[in-house]
TrEMBL record:
Pfam families attached to this UniProt entry: Phosphonate-bd
Organism: Desulfovibrio psychrotolerans
SUPFAM superfamilies: Periplasmic binding protein-like II
Biological classification of the source: Bacteria, Pseudomonadati, Thermodesulfobacteriota, Desulfovibrionia, Desulfovibrionales
GO cellular component: ATP-binding cassette (ABC) transporter complex
Identification of the protein by name: Phosphonate ABC transporter substrate-binding protein
Keywords: Signal
């Protein structure tokens, strides 16, 4: 409830502070009223001179898919690179939910970030987030598949065998952990909530560990998270078995707040494009060695299609629904 009240207060403040240039906006598309998209690239245009932000310290964070402390260390070298490129101090801001991350950028407390695949749409439409890159190499960006995992000795062999079972989805906004399964599974004869009981685990690693420990019969998860957990020894190789794998999706998007001043944005973009991953980052991110350039309009089309197929709206009502679901799931877990 506290988080919801905080969001509502933030929305009110921002609504009052909608820029005066709103009357000059020729195209907004699906963006919140405080943003404009005159170049029609589906992301917010930069704030005009005199209204943009030039903070003395840049705040950065990565999606709260897994243990935040681990990724704070992983991104330490990139933060140092970003500091050199911009001349700004850079601090890591720990978030524990997708909605909190969106709220932080919308309220101006977060300037540069990596958003998970599904919540990227909320960040773009509601927080003025401009995605510019995903992890990759010189030739392509890094993608992932939706996997359905079960224990190796489970009697479940096919998707049809999930009927009547308890299946862990991650969170309401997650692409691979919830949205994609609701679109991709019904054509294969299995409908979430109807044919099996959905239990929200909160995160991909919790779904995977829950299956391994026997708390859930199966779980749809992102392949990159699963593979990292196997390499790290958090799940033994061969302990789980895959019964389904989808086509590929882009991984987490990286970018900046459109409310930052153009000169600063240019330096941030340059930092992403010139940075090369440390050995620790390569190990953490499946041998990706750089941030590969992307656009939200083109490279997130398949993700938006999945969202539309589930009736997910990347707007204020959709965000409120996501917050309410996160709170409901947290309350359920607290009682367990």
């Amino acid at each position: 409830m506290r988080r919801l009240l905080s969001l509502l207060a933030t929305l009110f403040i921002l609504a009052v502070a909608v820029p005066a240039l709103a009357a000059d906006c020729q195209n907004r598309g699906l963006l919140d009223p405080m943003y404009c998209d005159n170049d029609m690239d589906m992301v917010a245009d930069l704030a005009p001179a005199g209204m943009c932000k030039d903070p003395s310290t840049l705040v950065f964070t990565y999606t709260p898919v897994e243990d935040p402390a681990v990724y704070q260390d992983v991104f330490a070298d990139f933060q140092a690179h970003l500091k050199r490129a911009t001349g700004k101090d850079v601090v890591y801001y720990t978030v524990h939910s997708n909605s909190a991350q969106v709220e932080a950028m919308r309220s101006g407390r977060l300037h540069v970030a990596g958003f998970s695949t599904g919540p990227t749409g909320f960040a773009v439409n509601l927080a003025g987030f401009v995605p510019i890159a995903v992890k990759g190499d010189a030739d392509r960006f890094q993608g992932y598949q939706l996997l359905v995992v079960v224990k190796k000795d489970s009697p479940i062999q096919t998707m049809a065998d999930l009927k009547g079972k308890k299946v862990a989805h991650t969170s309401a906004s997650s692409n691979s952990g919830n949205l994609a399964p609701r679109v991709l599974f019904p054509p294969r004869g299995i409908t979430p909530d109807q044919d099996y009981t959905v239990v929200y685990s909160g995160k991909h690693d919790q779904s995977i560990l829950g299956v391994a420990h026997g708390d859930y019969d199966a779980a749809p998860v992102a392949s990159d998270v699963y593979e990292r957990m196997v390499r790290a020894g958090r799940v033994k190789e061969g302990e789980l078995r895959t019964i389904y794998a989808s086509a590929g999706f882009p991984t987490s998007s990286f970018g900046y707040s459109s409310q930052l001043c153009p000169d600063l944005v240019e330096k941030i973009v340059g930092a992403f494009h010139t940075y090369r991953f440390t050995d620790g980052m390569k190990k953490a991110f499946d041998d990706a060695d750089r941030f590969y350039p992307i656009t939200y309009k083109a490279d997130w089309a398949v993700v938006r299609e999945i969202a539309e197929g589930t009736g997910t709206s990347y707007n204020e009502e959709g965000l409120k629904a996501m917050i309410a679901k996160e709170q409901e799931d947290a309350a359920k877990k607290a009682k367990q």
